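Trying the structure run again after the queue cleared.
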Amino acid sequence: MRALGKGLVVTLAIVGAIASIQVLRGQATAPLAAGNFLHVGIVVKDITAASQMFADVYGVTPPTPRVFDNVKTLRLPAGASGNQVAKAKLVQFTVGNVRVELIEPTEGATPWQEHLDKYGQSVHHLSFGVPDIEQSLRGLEAKGGTWVMGEPGNMSFKYVDMRDQLGYTVELGRQQIPTAVAPAQPTP
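Done. Tokens:
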């Protein structure tokens, strides 16, 4: 009986050591090391005017903005109250080798509106495709980031506020295989 007890203690010690090593190994891994850059997100006051300015400056034809009317905010910005469902208009297009996403918050308290109110029109986030969104989220939180947008369990995207650490918010998305970016079509 005593041998069985010692065997159980040794087994549990080994399991604990393996678990500790895995946790430490995960902490040593850079959360975005296996990710690829997807786009830069810019918050704007008026998506129609901003899209037209991008068209005029870069010679591109941005698509018609899409309306998102069920955006879930995980944590409301400081001082905000009410519903955590927000609305926004988004448009994405390519400028050179970079994907640009313009976002106009239209209703509700969101990190986008908070950014717009505090900093005006400017870069809000850099988006990275990662192999495991949840693991990268935990890694960024371990480095001081705050998960601010994206539903628990929803694997399409998560926003992690890293402004204090990096100067911007990180968007985590599904990893995409990098492809050559087609040049933007000049406006007629």
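Residues 4-13, 15-28 have pLDDT under 50 and may be disordered. Worth checking whether this holds up in the mutant runs.
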